[in-house]
Amino acid sequence: MIIKKCLFPAAGYGTRFLPATKAMPKEMLPVMAKPLIQYGVEEAVEANMNTIAIITGRGKRAIEDHFDYSYELEHQIKGTKKESLLSDVNELIERCTFSYTRQNEMNGLGAAIYKGETLIGNQPFGVVLADDLCINPSGDGVLKQMSAIYEKYRCCIVAIQEIPKDETYKYGIVAGNEIEDGLFIVSDMVEKPKPKDAPSNLAIIGRYILTPEIFGIIKDTKAGINKEIQITDALLNMAKKNMVLAYKFKGKRFDCGSIDGYMEASNYFYQQTSKVEKSTK
Ligand code: UTP
Question: Which residues face 35 on adjacent strands?
Protein backbone atom coordinates (compact mmCIF):
# COMPACT_ATOMS: atom_id res chain seq x y z
CA MET A 1 0.00 0.00 0.00
CA ILE A 2 1.50 3.33 -1.02
CA ILE A 3 -0.45 5.89 0.96
CA LYS A 4 0.49 5.83 4.63
CA LYS A 5 -0.57 9.27 5.84
CA CYS A 6 -3.96 10.74 6.43
CA LEU A 7 -4.73 14.38 7.20
CA PHE A 8 -7.69 15.43 9.30
CA PRO A 9 -8.51 19.14 9.00
CA ALA A 10 -10.37 19.73 12.24
CA ALA A 11 -9.87 23.39 12.94
CA GLY A 12 -13.32 24.70 11.94
CA TYR A 13 -15.52 26.41 14.49
CA GLY A 14 -18.53 24.12 13.99
CA THR A 15 -20.93 27.03 14.38
CA ARG A 16 -23.94 24.95 13.33
CA PHE A 17 -23.55 23.03 16.57
CA LEU A 18 -23.35 25.95 18.95
CA PRO A 19 -23.57 25.98 21.90
CA ALA A 20 -22.31 22.35 22.02
CA THR A 21 -19.17 23.35 20.13
CA LYS A 22 -18.41 26.43 22.21
CA ALA A 23 -15.81 24.60 24.30
CA MET A 24 -15.82 21.17 22.63
CA PRO A 25 -14.54 20.32 19.13
CA LYS A 26 -17.24 19.35 16.64
CA GLU A 27 -15.11 16.30 15.77
CA MET A 28 -15.62 15.00 19.33
CA LEU A 29 -19.42 14.88 19.02
CA PRO A 30 -20.40 11.25 19.62
CA VAL A 31 -22.51 9.05 17.40
CA MET A 32 -23.52 6.40 19.88
CA ALA A 33 -20.56 6.56 22.30
CA LYS A 34 -17.84 7.10 19.69
CA PRO A 35 -16.59 10.54 18.63
CA LEU A 36 -16.83 11.41 14.93
CA ILE A 37 -13.07 11.67 14.56
CA GLN A 38 -12.58 8.12 15.84
CA TYR A 39 -14.82 6.80 13.04
CA GLY A 40 -12.60 8.72 10.60
CA VAL A 41 -9.35 7.36 12.03
CA GLU A 42 -10.77 3.83 11.93
CA GLU A 43 -11.58 4.33 8.24
CA ALA A 44 -8.01 5.56 7.60
CA VAL A 45 -6.49 2.59 9.42
CA GLU A 46 -8.69 0.21 7.42
CA ALA A 47 -7.04 1.78 4.33
CA ASN A 48 -3.60 1.15 5.89
CA MET A 49 -3.02 4.83 6.64
CA ASN A 50 -1.55 4.66 10.12
CA THR A 51 0.23 8.01 10.22
CA ILE A 52 -2.43 10.43 11.31
CA ALA A 53 -1.93 14.18 10.99
CA ILE A 54 -4.53 16.43 12.56
CA ILE A 55 -5.03 20.15 11.96
CA THR A 56 -6.45 21.58 15.12
CA GLY A 57 -7.13 25.05 16.44
CA ARG A 58 -7.88 26.81 19.66
CA GLY A 59 -10.19 24.82 21.93
CA LYS A 60 -9.47 21.48 20.24
CA ARG A 61 -7.21 19.91 22.84
CA ALA A 62 -9.77 17.17 23.61
CA ILE A 63 -8.85 15.54 20.29
CA GLU A 64 -5.23 15.04 21.43
CA ASP A 65 -6.35 13.71 24.78
CA HIS A 66 -8.73 11.28 23.08
CA PHE A 67 -5.88 9.67 21.14
CA ASP A 68 -3.71 9.16 24.22
CA TYR A 69 -3.90 6.83 27.19
CA SER A 70 -5.78 7.96 30.25
CA TYR A 71 -3.97 6.00 32.97
CA GLU A 72 -6.10 7.20 35.86
CA LEU A 73 -9.32 6.27 34.10
CA GLU A 74 -7.94 2.95 32.94
CA HIS A 75 -6.82 2.13 36.47
CA GLN A 76 -10.32 2.99 37.70
CA ILE A 77 -12.15 0.61 35.32
CA LYS A 78 -9.54 -2.16 35.20
CA GLY A 79 -11.09 -5.57 35.76
CA THR A 80 -14.65 -4.28 35.28
CA LYS A 81 -16.99 -4.80 32.32
CA LYS A 82 -16.29 -1.21 31.25
CA GLU A 83 -12.67 -1.95 30.41
CA SER A 84 -13.64 -3.15 26.95
CA LEU A 85 -15.22 0.23 26.12
CA LEU A 86 -11.74 1.68 25.61
CA SER A 87 -10.33 -1.22 23.63
CA ASP A 88 -11.08 0.20 20.14
CA VAL A 89 -9.49 3.57 20.82
CA ASN A 90 -6.53 1.96 22.59
CA GLU A 91 -5.96 -0.21 19.55
CA LEU A 92 -5.80 2.92 17.37
CA ILE A 93 -3.32 4.48 19.80
CA GLU A 94 -1.13 1.38 19.48
CA ARG A 95 -1.35 1.12 15.71
CA CYS A 96 -1.06 4.79 14.71
CA THR A 97 1.18 7.75 15.24
CA PHE A 98 -0.62 11.04 15.74
CA SER A 99 0.83 14.45 15.04
CA TYR A 100 -0.82 17.84 15.30
CA THR A 101 -0.42 21.35 14.08
CA ARG A 102 -2.65 24.35 14.61
CA GLN A 103 -4.39 26.49 12.06
CA ASN A 104 -4.26 29.87 13.75
CA GLU A 105 -6.69 31.65 11.44
CA MET A 106 -9.78 29.84 10.13
CA ASN A 107 -9.42 30.88 6.52
CA GLY A 108 -10.76 27.83 4.77
CA LEU A 109 -10.30 24.14 4.12
CA GLY A 110 -7.61 24.79 1.49
CA ALA A 111 -5.63 26.79 4.03
CA ALA A 112 -6.11 24.04 6.64
CA ILE A 113 -4.76 21.43 4.22
CA TYR A 114 -1.83 23.70 3.36
CA LYS A 115 -0.98 23.83 7.08
CA GLY A 116 -0.54 20.07 6.91
CA GLU A 117 2.45 20.27 4.57
CA THR A 118 4.99 20.02 7.38
CA LEU A 119 3.26 16.92 8.76
CA ILE A 120 2.75 15.23 5.38
CA GLY A 121 5.94 16.05 3.47
CA ASN A 122 6.48 14.97 -0.11
CA GLN A 123 4.10 12.04 -0.48
CA PRO A 124 0.49 11.34 -1.45
CA PHE A 125 -1.99 11.38 1.41
CA GLY A 126 -5.60 10.86 2.33
CA VAL A 127 -7.83 13.61 3.72
CA VAL A 128 -10.81 12.98 5.95
CA LEU A 129 -13.32 15.57 7.10
CA ALA A 130 -14.52 13.78 10.18
CA ASP A 131 -17.92 15.48 10.17
CA ASP A 132 -18.72 13.45 7.05
CA LEU A 133 -19.26 10.04 8.58
CA CYS A 134 -18.95 7.41 5.85
CA ILE A 135 -19.72 3.73 6.05
CA ASN A 136 -19.96 0.88 3.60
CA PRO A 137 -21.78 -2.03 5.24
CA SER A 138 -21.22 -4.26 2.21
CA GLY A 139 -17.48 -3.84 1.61
CA ASP A 140 -14.41 -1.62 1.81
CA GLY A 141 -14.60 1.80 3.44
CA VAL A 142 -14.46 4.89 1.23
CA LEU A 143 -10.76 5.69 1.79
CA LYS A 144 -9.80 2.11 1.00
CA GLN A 145 -11.82 2.27 -2.22
CA MET A 146 -10.07 5.53 -3.13
CA SER A 147 -6.64 4.13 -2.28
CA ALA A 148 -7.18 1.33 -4.78
CA ILE A 149 -8.08 3.89 -7.46
CA TYR A 150 -4.97 5.90 -6.58
CA GLU A 151 -2.80 2.84 -7.11
CA LYS A 152 -4.11 2.61 -10.65
CA TYR A 153 -4.15 6.30 -11.68
CA ARG A 154 -1.66 8.03 -9.29
CA CYS A 155 -3.45 11.36 -9.20
CA CYS A 156 -5.67 13.47 -6.94
CA ILE A 157 -9.10 11.97 -6.30
CA VAL A 158 -12.19 13.49 -4.71
CA ALA A 159 -15.13 11.46 -3.42
CA ILE A 160 -18.49 12.54 -4.82
CA GLN A 161 -22.15 11.73 -4.40
CA GLU A 162 -25.30 12.76 -6.21
CA ILE A 163 -27.28 15.37 -4.33
CA PRO A 164 -30.62 17.08 -4.98
CA LYS A 165 -29.97 19.97 -7.41
CA ASP A 166 -31.39 22.55 -4.98
CA GLU A 167 -28.58 21.75 -2.48
CA THR A 168 -25.61 22.59 -4.72
CA TYR A 169 -24.94 25.80 -2.74
CA LYS A 170 -23.70 23.64 0.20
CA TYR A 171 -20.98 21.75 -1.70
CA GLY A 172 -18.14 21.80 -4.17
CA ILE A 173 -19.71 20.58 -7.42
CA VAL A 174 -17.81 18.78 -10.20
CA ALA A 175 -18.39 18.10 -13.87
CA GLY A 176 -16.46 15.48 -15.76
CA ASN A 177 -16.24 12.68 -18.29
CA GLU A 178 -16.96 9.20 -17.01
CA ILE A 179 -14.05 6.85 -17.77
CA GLU A 180 -15.14 3.89 -15.69
CA ASP A 181 -18.37 3.15 -13.86
CA GLY A 182 -18.66 5.97 -11.30
CA LEU A 183 -15.19 7.42 -12.05
CA PHE A 184 -14.90 10.81 -13.79
CA ILE A 185 -12.03 12.94 -15.09
CA VAL A 186 -12.79 16.35 -13.64
CA SER A 187 -13.35 19.07 -16.24
CA ASP A 188 -14.89 21.67 -13.96
CA MET A 189 -15.33 22.29 -10.27
CA VAL A 190 -17.19 25.08 -8.48
CA GLU A 191 -17.47 25.74 -4.76
CA LYS A 192 -21.00 26.28 -3.45
CA PRO A 193 -22.68 27.32 -6.74
CA LYS A 194 -26.32 28.39 -6.92
CA PRO A 195 -28.38 25.57 -8.47
CA LYS A 196 -28.69 27.50 -11.74
CA ASP A 197 -24.89 27.88 -12.00
CA ALA A 198 -23.99 24.31 -10.91
CA PRO A 199 -22.31 22.22 -13.63
CA SER A 200 -23.96 19.02 -12.29
CA ASN A 201 -25.43 17.53 -9.13
CA LEU A 202 -22.22 15.65 -8.25
CA ALA A 203 -21.07 16.98 -4.89
CA ILE A 204 -17.65 16.60 -3.30
CA ILE A 205 -17.83 15.05 0.15
CA GLY A 206 -15.17 14.93 2.85
CA ARG A 207 -12.77 12.33 1.45
CA TYR A 208 -9.80 13.12 -0.78
CA ILE A 209 -6.58 11.56 -1.96
CA LEU A 210 -4.10 14.32 -2.73
CA THR A 211 -0.62 14.36 -4.20
CA PRO A 212 1.97 16.66 -2.60
CA GLU A 213 1.92 19.02 -5.63
CA ILE A 214 -1.33 20.31 -4.14
CA PHE A 215 0.61 22.31 -1.52
CA GLY A 216 2.30 24.52 -4.13
CA ILE A 217 -1.02 24.96 -5.91
CA ILE A 218 -2.88 25.97 -2.74
CA LYS A 219 -0.14 28.50 -2.04
CA ASP A 220 -0.93 30.17 -5.38
CA THR A 221 -4.72 29.91 -5.01
CA LYS A 222 -6.49 33.14 -4.11
CA ALA A 223 -9.29 33.31 -1.56
CA GLY A 224 -12.63 32.35 -3.14
CA ILE A 225 -16.19 32.20 -1.89
CA ASN A 226 -16.61 33.39 1.73
CA LYS A 227 -13.10 34.93 1.36
CA GLU A 228 -11.63 31.53 2.25
CA ILE A 229 -8.93 29.51 0.50
CA GLN A 230 -10.99 26.73 -1.05
CA ILE A 231 -9.54 23.29 -1.79
CA THR A 232 -12.06 23.08 -4.67
CA ASP A 233 -10.42 26.10 -6.37
CA ALA A 234 -6.95 24.60 -5.84
CA LEU A 235 -8.08 21.26 -7.28
CA LEU A 236 -9.55 22.98 -10.33
CA ASN A 237 -6.15 24.63 -10.88
CA MET A 238 -4.59 21.17 -10.51
CA ALA A 239 -7.10 19.70 -12.99
CA LYS A 240 -5.95 22.23 -15.61
CA LYS A 241 -2.42 20.75 -15.44
CA ASN A 242 -2.86 17.14 -14.32
CA MET A 243 -5.66 14.64 -14.21
CA VAL A 244 -7.98 14.92 -11.18
CA LEU A 245 -10.54 12.18 -10.67
CA ALA A 246 -13.94 12.26 -9.01
CA TYR A 247 -15.18 8.97 -7.62
CA LYS A 248 -18.77 8.08 -6.82
CA PHE A 249 -18.03 6.02 -3.73
CA LYS A 250 -19.86 2.92 -2.63
CA GLY A 251 -21.53 3.28 0.73
CA LYS A 252 -23.43 5.81 2.77
CA ARG A 253 -22.46 9.24 4.04
CA PHE A 254 -23.96 11.17 6.91
CA ASP A 255 -23.42 14.92 7.00
CA CYS A 256 -22.72 15.12 10.72
CA GLY A 257 -21.79 18.80 10.38
CA SER A 258 -25.54 19.48 10.22
CA ILE A 259 -28.09 18.67 12.91
CA ASP A 260 -30.25 16.67 10.47
CA GLY A 261 -27.36 14.51 9.25
CA TYR A 262 -26.09 14.02 12.78
CA MET A 263 -29.50 12.82 13.97
CA GLU A 264 -29.81 10.56 10.94
CA ALA A 265 -26.41 8.97 11.73
CA SER A 266 -27.31 8.54 15.40
CA ASN A 267 -30.62 6.85 14.52
CA TYR A 268 -28.96 4.63 11.93
CA PHE A 269 -26.20 3.43 14.28
CA TYR A 270 -28.66 2.97 17.13
CA GLN A 271 -30.92 0.83 14.96
CA GLN A 272 -27.97 -1.25 13.76
CA THR A 273 -26.90 -1.88 17.36
CA SER A 274 -30.38 -2.84 18.49
CA LYS A 275 -30.68 -5.22 15.50
CA VAL A 276 -27.43 -6.92 16.57
CA GLU A 277 -28.56 -7.08 20.21
CA LYS A 278 -31.94 -8.58 19.26
CA SER A 279 -30.30 -11.20 17.02
CA THR A 280 -27.93 -12.29 19.81
CA LYS A 281 -30.66 -12.57 22.47
P1 UTP B 1 -17.18 23.30 7.59
O2 UTP B 1 -17.53 23.97 6.33
O3 UTP B 1 -18.11 22.22 8.07
O4 UTP B 1 -17.01 24.41 8.71
O5 UTP B 1 -15.72 22.72 7.44
P6 UTP B 1 -17.01 24.29 10.28
O7 UTP B 1 -16.40 25.51 10.84
O8 UTP B 1 -16.35 23.00 10.70
O9 UTP B 1 -18.55 24.17 10.67
P10 UTP B 1 -19.75 25.27 10.62
O11 UTP B 1 -20.10 25.44 9.17
O12 UTP B 1 -19.27 26.54 11.26
O13 UTP B 1 -20.84 24.61 11.41
C14 UTP B 1 -15.47 21.50 6.77
C15 UTP B 1 -14.25 20.86 7.37
O16 UTP B 1 -13.10 21.68 7.18
C17 UTP B 1 -12.46 21.98 8.41
C18 UTP B 1 -13.53 21.78 9.47
O19 UTP B 1 -12.94 21.45 10.72
C20 UTP B 1 -14.35 20.62 8.88
O21 UTP B 1 -13.73 19.37 9.13
N22 UTP B 1 -11.97 23.39 8.35
C23 UTP B 1 -12.75 24.35 7.78
C24 UTP B 1 -10.74 23.69 8.87
O25 UTP B 1 -10.01 22.81 9.41
N26 UTP B 1 -10.31 24.99 8.80
C27 UTP B 1 -11.05 25.98 8.23
O28 UTP B 1 -10.58 27.14 8.20
C29 UTP B 1 -12.30 25.64 7.72
Answer: 30
The 10s digit of each residue's pLDDT in 229-251 is: 999 999 999 999 999 999 999 99
User: Do 74 and 82 touch, CB atoms closer than 8 A?
Assistant: no
Distance between Cα 227 and ligand 1 center (Å)? 14
Mapped onto helix, strand or coil, the DSSP state of residue 122 is coil
Kindly give, in sequence order, each residue whose CB lies less than 8 Å from that of residue 123, ignoring residues fewer than 6 positions away. 3, 4, 5, 212
Beta strand pairing status for 125-128 and 5-9?
A: parallel
d(CA 131, ligand 1 centre) in Å: 9
pLDDT in tens, 145-170: 999 999 999 999 999 999 999 999 99
List the residue whose alpha carbon is closest to atom 8 of ligand 1.
12
216: pLDDT strictly greater than 60? yes
**Contacts of residue 278, Cβ cutoff 8 Å, sequence gap at least 6:** none
Residue with the smallest CA separation from ligand 1 atom 29 is 108
Query: What pLDDT, on the 0 to 100 scale, is given for residue 276?
Result: 76
Alpha-carbon torsion 7, 10, 16, 20, what sign? positive
Pocket test for ligand 1, best of 55, 129, 254 (most atoms within 8 A of CB): 129
CATH of residue 203: 3.90.550.10
Coil, helix or strand at residue 121: coil
54, containing H or E segment: strand 51-56
Which pTM does this prediction carry?
0.96
In terms of Cβ atoms closer than 10 Å to its own Cβ (0-12, 13-18, 19+), residue 46 is middle
Residue range(s) defining the domain that contains residue 12: 5-280
Could you give the number of structural domains in the chain? 1
